[in-house]
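Quick bug: Transporter, betaine/carnitine/choline family output formatted oddly.
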Amino acid sequence: MKNKIDWMITLLPLCLILVLCFVFFVAPEQSNVVLSQIRFFFGDTFGSYYLIIGLGIFLLSIYIAFSKYGDIVLGEKKEKPKYSFFAWGSMMFTCGLAADILFYSFSEWVMYASDPHIKEMGSIQQWAGVYPLFHWSLIPWSFYLVLAVAFGFMLHVRKRNRQKYSEACRPLLGKYTDKWPGRIIDLLAVFALLAGTATTFSVATPLMATIIQDLFHLTVSRTAINIVILIITCIVYTYSLLHGFKGISRLANLCIYFFFGLLAFVLLFGGQARYIIETGLNSLGTMVENFIGLSTFTDPLRSTNFPQNWTIYYWAYWMVWCVAAPFFIGSISRGRTVRQTILGGYVFGVGSTLISFIVLGNYSMGLQMHGIADFMAQYAKTGDLYGMIVDIIKTLPCAPLVMVAVLFTMIAFYATSFDSIALTASCYCYHELKEDEMPHKTLQLMWCILLILLPIALLFAQSSMNNLQSVSIIAAFPIGIVIVMIALSFLKDAKPKD
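Here's what came back:
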């Protein structure tokens, strides 16, 4: 196996991570300033680029699903799916969305409610619940699903042994896939993978730390607890990863039970069921009615910078996650048709995501609108979203038990998403890897450690939400071009014969 290892793809990211970690530890303030400047250049100057790719990929996903491409089986023509719909959907959902879905489900409407753009649009009641649904549903999942069928076709139909981004571009690149253009694409993919992981872990881990602080009345700093959590989870997730797909599948099922159990408890016992359902239905209708307008809004006069601060960040965030999640989804979709993969992904992935934001977001928004609590004032005063979320949970019956449930759900989410990322990154380290062949466990262990270093450095540098977003926006700029190349390569390679 050693002679199969791609040492450039393996060692160059390792060196980059070590350098970045050193910089964040030694010069945290200066590195945050540089991040902000680079983020402004890409997000503000080239914002339309991200929006065009997002809407284009979504429309392409619909075309692929309902055209002759949709009839293609990802495997042999009469092959049956390896996993049941529930097991498949659970793994897809939990690998595609890490624990940050709980952080954002609880808090995102508050960040929008305080944004001047909401006043331009109308009332908080009408719009604060719409944008979370828009930013986490159709376009984000379209990135995953278009690339998942492209990778699934590459792996299960064409039987290619190079599980890399560059290989998915072979129909366009031809002989250049094995030369420097292909090498550059693979390096960009690995860097994007690191950026997505760093952003996710850095955003959501402090919520786990805050819950632990509150449950056990600890006075230790949140940063110290964050680092301890990341080290412990690295050990736990490494153990589960080394047990392969079977272990990941069990974790995914466990995560889904925790997740939907939490949502059911909030809906049934939170006292806001009617408001949650009615506001959720209204927000969903408003999003569908205004979908094209929301997808193309650029704020050309920069009156609020809302798309630059949010929509562009989210599309970039999902682009960098596209390096790991679609490969994993494509791998577990063997035996399904392209149509089943895309539409099933929308049903399970988008459906579960919408339910999370509707239930958890509208619960706290209901308390705000009925005058029971004032989370907007609390956020405006402290700027502490993590403490605010803990206070939201405290309004529920049996609050300590709910906090424990949230903690375990986040751990389960992290486990499945982290494992799928580390597994994908390990596959990248090989020149060739057969479909049924697994990366060496030492290599998987190395990636488990590497993927946790950058989030620790970002947390140590106490990066703001804006700077955490910057990491994804910067990494997504070149990877957006590669995503378009993969989509075009799939259309060319899989073109049905008339």
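Actually, after a second look the formatting is fine. The mean pLDDT is 85. Closing.
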